[in-house]
Amino acid sequence: MPVPANRFKAAITAGAPQIGLWLNMAGAIPAEIAGRAGFDWLVIDGEHGPNDLSTIREQLQALSGSSAEPVVRPPAGETWMIKQLLDLGARTLLVPMVDTPEQARRLVSATRYPPNGVRGMGAMVARASGFGAIPDYVESAEAELCLLVQIESVEAVNNIESIAAIDGVDGLFIGPADLSADMGFRGRTDSPEVRATIRDAIGRIVATGKPAGILTFDEALNRECLDLGASFVAVGGDVTEFALALRRLAARYGRADTAAGPASY
Questions:
Q1: Contact indicator for 152, 175 with CB cutoff of 8 Å
Q2: What residues act catalytically?
Q3: pTM of the full predicted structure?
Q4: How confident is residue 165, by pLDDT bands cut at 50, 70 and 90?
Q5: How far is 144 from 39, CA to CA, in rounded Å?
Q6: CA 123 to CA 145: how far, in whole Å?
Q7: What is the 8-class DSSP label of residue 189?
Q8: Architecture of the domain defined by 7-264
Q9: Domain locations in the chain as residue ranges
Q10: What is the DSSP string of 197-251?
Q11: How many angstroms separate the CA atoms of 107 and 13, rounded?
């Protein structure tokens, strides 16, 4: 029995737009709620969310019956982190700060069993194989794994074509916040220079034949990136949507979070 098909990977490879949401609350219940909301993919964030292996596992379990693909972002592209997340049952990874094709090649190796890579052999006692219920997991896992790498620096933008050329990289994802900071426009993702770089990067990724993705909180930019051919676009996050909803509710009754000041918004 092979591992289940990764419909998200198939969709982005075919260029079918997939709309996603960031999960930073590090809880199973918010993840389950998001999983029932209609999104195509959900990022369990281990880089900027307060997640560890236990909370990631709980969210993967909460999303096991959802049609949304859980995408796990590790804190960094370390081989040992990737091994643990794959054994935990993550099959789509979004790795931050990938600047060179050499880094991308190492990440691909980390997701493959020998002789094609360096992933440790231990899946038969792991959640990934259903604790041994998928006896041919080792033989079939690679085809359904999806490796997405984040383009978040000027160096990475300059290397888009060479990173995309690495076999096993399934998609390239623009990170506007870090990219804008590296360009000298920290906190100004809406600057004309950053926007122009994003548009150029999306077009160049699409031209390589690899799927392009992005996260922004700007609906106009999200729709523009979709028009440019981006096939996996995250349009918001659980923390921001929850915070805004509560502030609006409080404001309707004349209440507001004045103690934190404008910075909290």
A1: yes
A2: 48
A3: 0.93
A4: very high
A5: 20
A6: 14
A7: T
A8: Alpha-Beta Barrel (3.20)
A9: 7-264
A10: HHHHHHHHHHHHTS-EEEE-S-HHHHHHHHHTT-SEEEEEEHHHHHHHHHHHHHH
A11: 19
